[in-house]
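--- STAGE predict ---
source: upstream dedup step, 1 unique chain passed
mode: sequence only
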Amino acid sequence: MSENNYANVNGINLYYEIHGSGRPLVLLHGGLGSGEMFAPIIPQLAAKHRVIAVDLQGHGRTADIDRPIDVRLMADDIAALIDHLGLEKPDVVGYSLGGGVALQLAFKYPEKVRRLVAVSANVRRDAIPPEMLAQQLQVNAAAAEFMKSTPMYESYVRVAPRPQDFPKLLDKMGQSMAKDFDFSEDVRGLKMPTLIVAGDADMAPPSHYVEVFKLLDGGLRDGGWMGEGRAKGGHALAILPGVTHYNIFMSPLFAAATLAFLDEA
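--- STAGE serialize ---
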């Protein structure tokens, strides 16, 4: 059973679904997707957790508003939703765009996050190979016609409050991805236990996610017989075999690694 709702928070009418019961887990999807992306693994996550799957600004059932697509602004939306729902330090899991939002939430509102899982979330734009950056620069309203044959478009028009906004969303996503960013120093300051997850064939190479783990004091020494050499703060890294940026979000390996980390304590 799931519960479907809208929350009018921070100037946006944010759609969310609740699945299961237990300790709250806020789940944030990738760009041009929606909470429905996680349908294959939500039963796994919701077996012992109250999963709150959100549709971010301009995605899924959440209509766009007059502001850029910006992970920092969307983090403000999620902080407001956490308050709206009266959640006390939920776990937060985000993939790709949602991973960027989850990281910004942890940077700006550390008191609202118990444990953080950032999946396929790059913390520097230059970690992405040049050929992928070139593809991202081609994301704009002019690509809407080409996108009509994709599952992303089909799922968008099926649920979006204003299906005609798809070209506008592509424009905003393209503008967002064209901006340079480097959140390395912010990552270094994270205090809540954080799991960095990526596929072995992700958009950025595995070495990038190892670098991010090193910012969290991870992978710098032998872990020790009793785990005494692990990253201080309980941080962890998972590079998942046989998955890409485009299927990791529905991988049972991702769900298993996430649950193992969240249920550690």
